[in-house]
């Protein structure tokens, strides 16, 4: 096949000569031989007609026959077809998902000073206290183990310590920071959603979005975060927009704690057979170092039903983040029982090295009465160095289980 582009027309002419299975030189030779045979026959007929008619009439007939042969050879031999080029503009879309769970209200004063200055510089959170050059100079001093002594330096650290994680999301999205919403909105259509255990559409105007990210205690927030929700929404938009969905951006502290892991959904967005790949970009709003927290990750009774004077094992799984080495004290307390006024709590301890996670622990408890017992397990740590330890989330240091 041969393509002839038409400069003044949105399309092109496609020629399909015979002998399509032959190479291009063979096709040209075949057409030349066919044309030579036709010309030979036409000229022989012309010379024969000169015996009976004048030369002018014979020349006219020769010209008509040559024109007819050329038309037939072009139409039948080359099989020309017109191909039109149609253009369709598909608008591009970007999904921006903002984590709005309780954990986004947490501050992170445990950040390293260098990280605090990098956050302030990148998100323009302290322009009234120090310019970018000053912040960069302080970072260089810290890396050289020469901490700054400027009053403004300590003011910047104090400001970053007081900022909740959602303020980092505001700094990324809003005009006073990186202004990501405006930068993407100039090139793509945006859908902005908020998610926790549920997902909902948020306004895309900067003023409305700013008021939502600045809100303090105006609405009840859920303590769980389901990162699968924005990923599922991305899959829905891919089916709706086809090639029009160019990316999913998730702003979260990464504390996925509801349902299965989200990794498979992210992989499907990027590797679905026969469907466009949609990249997932994550912007982490937490700190590199987790806040100090000692918690009971899980607690269950094995078996949950025993006979009187039987023994039940309380299986604990502890979680320690940024906790110093020391002794973890675990206390099991019983509910009040008039027939057993002297029942004392059970206390056990384990040594924690301050590096690895505490091993699972099983505490045997003898059940001394025939009743439903609600046992309470409480944990605390006594640091090895004797210093104080401030647990950022003391509410997760205690759990109950029914036997």
Describe it.
The strands form 4 sheets. A 5-stranded mixed beta sheet has the order 6-5-4-7-8, with helices on both faces. Strands 12-11-14-15 form a 4-stranded antiparallel beta sheet, with no helix packed on it. The chain has a 3-stranded antiparallel beta sheet with strand order 1-2-3, with no helix packed on it. The protein has 10 helices and 15 strands. Helix 1 packs antiparallel against helix 2 (55-77) and helix 3 packs across helix 5. The protein has helices spanning 24-49, 55-77, 113-123, 132-143, 151-162, 165-173, 180-185, 206-214, 228-241, 263-271, and strands spanning 2-5, 11-15, 81-84, 93-99, 189-195, 199-201, 245-252, 280-284, 293-302, 311-321, 326-333, 346-352, 361-366, 374-383, 398-402. 33% of the residues lie in helices and 25% in strands. With 403 residues, the protein is of the alpha+beta class.
Task: Please provide a brief summary of the model.
The protein is α+β, with helices and mostly antiparallel strands. The chain has helices at 24-49, 55-77, 113-123, 132-143, 151-162, 165-173, 180-185, 206-214, 228-241, 263-271, and strands at residues 2-5, 11-15, 81-84, 93-99, 189-195, 199-201, 245-252, 280-284, 293-302, 311-321, 326-333, 346-352, 361-366, 374-383, 398-402.
């Amino acid at each position: 096949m041969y393509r002839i582009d038409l400069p003044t027309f949105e399309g092109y002419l496609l020629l399909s000569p015979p002998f399509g299975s032959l190479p291009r030189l063979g096709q040209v030779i075949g057409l030349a031989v066919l044309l030579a045979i036709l010309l030979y026959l036409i000229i022989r007929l012309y010379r024969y007609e000169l015996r009976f008619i004048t030369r002018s009439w014979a020349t006219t007939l020769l010209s008509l026959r040559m024109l007819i042969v050329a038309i037939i050879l072009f139409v039948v031999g080359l099989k020309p077809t017109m191909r039109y080029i149609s253009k369709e503009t598909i608008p591009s879309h970007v999904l921006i998902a903002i984590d709005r769970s309780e954990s986004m209200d947490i501050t992170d004063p445990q950040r390293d000073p260098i990280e605090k200055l990098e956050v302030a510089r990148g998100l323009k959170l302290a322009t009234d206290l120090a310019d970018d050059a000053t912040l960069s100079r302080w970072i260089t001093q810290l890396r050289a183990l020469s901490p700054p002594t400027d009053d403004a330096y300590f003011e910047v650290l104090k400001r970053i310590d007081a900022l909740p994680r959602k303020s980092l999301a505001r700094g990324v999205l809003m005009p006073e920071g990186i202004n990501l919403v405006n930068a993407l909105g100039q090139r793509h259509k945006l859908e902005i959603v908020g998610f926790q255990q549920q997902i909902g559409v948020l306004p895309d105007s900067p003023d409305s979005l700013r008021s939502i990210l600045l809100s303090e205690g105006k609405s009840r927030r859920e303590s769980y975060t389901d990162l699968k929700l924005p990923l599922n929404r991305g899959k829905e938009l891919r089916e709706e927009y086809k090639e029009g969905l160019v990316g999913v951006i998730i702003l979260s502290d990464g504390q996925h704690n509801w349902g299965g892991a989200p990794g498979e959904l992210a992989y499907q967005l990027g590797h679905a057979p026969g469907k466009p790949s949609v990249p997932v970009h994550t912007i982490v709003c937490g700190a590199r170092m987790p806040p100090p927290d000692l918690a009971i990750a899980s607690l269950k009774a094995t078996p949950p039903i025993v006979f009187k004077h039987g023994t039940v094992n309380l299986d604990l799984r502890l979680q320690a983040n940024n906790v110093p080495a020391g002794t973890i004290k675990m206390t099991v307390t019983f509910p009040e029982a008039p027939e057993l006024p002297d029942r004392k709590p059970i206390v056990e301890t384990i040594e924690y090295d301050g590096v690895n996670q505490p091993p699972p622990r099983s505490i045997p408890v003898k059940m001394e009465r025939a009743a439903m017992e609600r046992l309470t397990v409480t944990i605390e740590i006594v640091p090895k160095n004797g210093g104080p330890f401030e647990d950022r989330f003391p509410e997760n240091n205690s759990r109950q289980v029914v036997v």
